[in-house]
Structures are given as C-alpha cells and as structure tokens.
Write a structure and sequence with these properties.
heterodimer; A: alpha/beta; two-stranded antiparallel sheet; 7 helices; about 45% helix; about 20% strand; B: about 130 residues; disordered N terminus
Chain lengths: ~130, ~130
C-alpha cells in the first residue's frame, strides 16, 4: 500500500491538463505557479492565460477587489511570467491601475472594467480628479 | 462644469497615463459603473466621448453591460467631433430616443451592431443589426 500514493506531480501532462481545465484559472495560478518548472509550463498554455478575471464576484453589484496577499502574488510573481500571453483582463476599478502597471501586456486587446465609481471613472477616462 | 470642446478632450487625453499605455491596443472594452453611485449626466457625457477618442482601435464597446444597472447617459451634449471609424458593435443604455439618434447620426460609420436600452419610456430594448448609412 505504501506505493499507492499518487501525487499531483506523478500524473502525466495530459491528465493534469484535463484536471486543470475544470478548475478556475486564477486559483490555479495562485496555487501552482512557481511550484516547479513542469507545472509552470502547463499553466502557460493559452487556455489558461487568454482571459484573466482578477476580481471577486458575488452577485451583481457585489464585485470586490482581490485581497492584498493575492494581488501581491499576482503582481509580483504571476503576471510578469505570463504578461505577453494575456489577451483579456476583467478587472475591478480600484485595483486596475496596479495590475495594468505590473507587466508589459503586449497582446492585451480586451478590457472589462467593473465597479467604476464617479471618482475613478473620471480619473481613468478624463484625467479629471 | 467644463465645456466639452475638442481642445478639452485632447487635454484630458494627455493627462491620463494608464489608459494612454493601452489606447492603441485595446479593441474591446466593457465598462460597468457602480449602480448605486450618483454620477451626474454631465460626467457620463464626458466619459463616453473620451473613451471613443482615447481608444483609437476600439471595435467593441459595452457601456453599462448589466441589465439591472440603473445608470444611463444622455447624449445631447456630445459634440459631433466625436466619431469612430473602427467601432463595429456598441451596447449601451440611454435616457431618451433622441440619444439614439445622436449616436446614429453617422458618427460611427462602421457600426454593425447597435444594442440599446432606452430608459425614459419604461423598459425598451432596441436592437439594430447591420446598420447602413
């Protein structure tokens, strides 16, 4: 029985891909990026990196920024690793600035901005404070 | 309130560093403003034309995407100098039918899909596909 313990890293790439596809990509990145080179390589597949929704969605009009520890890990470790692969960001207005300034998103073509208030809306789109 | 003139719009554009970085590469934009936030019509009328001017390759714009969003804008103060030859699809909520006419006066000459919710006369959704001018 002592040899029957199969760990995540013992599974072949194809099986890991099948499992990962069923999970939330943000949680995958948060949990697994940086664990080892093999997992990093699998997670850099475009099915995970195309669209990143970096916000907490509970219901309509209850959208919040990710917590600071999660944002820190994304801005410092995760986003710089996949910056050129991201095509669409869904962001919460109060943390948008920080996320967009954390990398060089050369292939970003779509942006969803949620929870815009009067102040940050005027700031982003008119330069008015 | 600052007058909406071409000069002012360009002036704002130069001051916004963040959106400035992405203004040429963003082709799809979804904007959702907090529903219970009081925002004056004048401010909306300022944000919308600035988005059109700022994002020079914009093809898809969804302004207030949620159906239950209470906010809407009125366009009678948007200058005719605000136009786009790249915009293909516009989804928006407005206040009056006249606002639709302002948006469909030819300023978006490539527009193919126009999905608008008009709030003044109850709940009306108007969908126009393949607009030809």
């Amino acid at each position: 029985m002592k040899y029957s313990c199969v760990q995540l890293n013992d599974l072949p790439d194809e099986i890991l891909l099948l499992i990962f596809k069923k999970l939330n990509n943000i949680e995958l990145f948060y949990s697994l990026i940086g664990v080892n080179k093999r997992l990093d390589k699998i997670l850099r597949d475009c099915i995970f990196t195309n669209t990143l929704t970096l916000l907490e969605y509970f219901s309509y009009n209850r959208i919040y920024s990710l917590s600071d520890p999660i944002l820190n890990r994304f801005c410092w470790q995760i986003l710089p690793n996949i910056e050129h692969k991201i095509k669409w960001f869904n962001l919460e207005a109060s943390s948008m600035e920080r996320i967009l300034l954390s990398g060089n998103y050369s292939n970003l073509s779509g942006l969803g901005i949620y929870n815009i208030t009067k102040e940050n809306g005027l700031h982003f789109f008119t330069g008015k404070m | 309130m600052i007058n909406l003139t071409g000069f002012n719009l360009i002036f704002y554009l130069d001051q916004t560093s963040l959106t400035h970085i992405f203004k040429n590469q963003i082709s799809s934009l979804v904007i959702e403003i907090v529903a219970n936030e009081y925002v004056a019509y004048e401010d909306y009328a300022l944000i919308f034309p600035n988005i059109i001017i700022m994002f020079s390759n914009l093809k898809y714009l969804n302004f207030h995407p949620s159906d239950v969003c209470l906010q809407r804008i009125t366009f009678n103060s948007v200058p005719t100098s605000v136009f786009s030859s790249t915009l293909l699809e516009l989804r928006i909520q407005v206040f009056t039918v006249e606002d639709c006419l302002y948006l469909l006066d030819g300023r978006f000459d490539q527009l193919r899909v126009f999905n608008v919710r008009i709030r003044s006369g109850g709940h009306t959704i108007l969908k126009i596909y393949k607009v030809d001018f």
